[in-house]
Hints:
Layout (H helix, E strand, L loop, with lengths): L4 E3 L5 H4 L2 H14 L6 H15 L3 H9 L6 E7 L2 H4 L7 E2 L3 E2 L6 E7 L15 E8 L6 H23 L3 E4 L6 H10 L4 E6 L18
Parallel strand pairs: 1-2, 2-5, 6-7, 6-8
Antiparallel strand pairs: 3-4
Amino acid sequence: MTQPFILTPPDDLLAQAPELRRMASDLSRRYANHEVVSEADLQNIGQALWQALNINEEDFQESLSDVIATSLPLILRCANSAIQQLPWECLHHPKFGFLGTHPRFTLSRQQSIPSAVNTPPLRKGPLKVLLFTALPDDLHTTARLDTEAEQAQVLEALLPWIGQGLVELETPDDGRFSSLQQLLNQGEFHLVFLSCYSPPAGCYRTGQPLHISP
């Protein structure tokens, strides 16, 4: 399996090379205005991007020499979204030209995860599930039975894990929107089922709105 060559721009790349942001913005504006963008224009920004990466050329050539029958995957790995949005497709190498279109290379982006220095440890515990049913006060009996059947189906599906203590299910009787807001603000639910009643056309009456819209 071919090992990719990772391109890792520094987090402060745009501070070190502020002209990259200007060049990228100008390129985007010209495309948006349907202006002519020449190959030389693309090459200029591509060369600037390659120089900003400060790649060790010996390491780059060594990775390329290990590839015989396939292309060398080039992966731009960065957590900074502003840097990710630069036109890396224009990346231009002094010898190989545009790497994104060269047959010996493939070029892709990969969002890296910032180092979690102060991230608290993951808490152990059951999966907390909220099954919230929003109903108007004047529902007919059949509709109420339908929602009760929905609740029963969810309970039946989760029952094996509830019995093992892996899942906690909360099914409040209060279907008001304010109650849902309070539950979501106070509870730390991992999964929320929102069940709403949708009446037939013409069933609304002035002054009697539903507690929550489906």
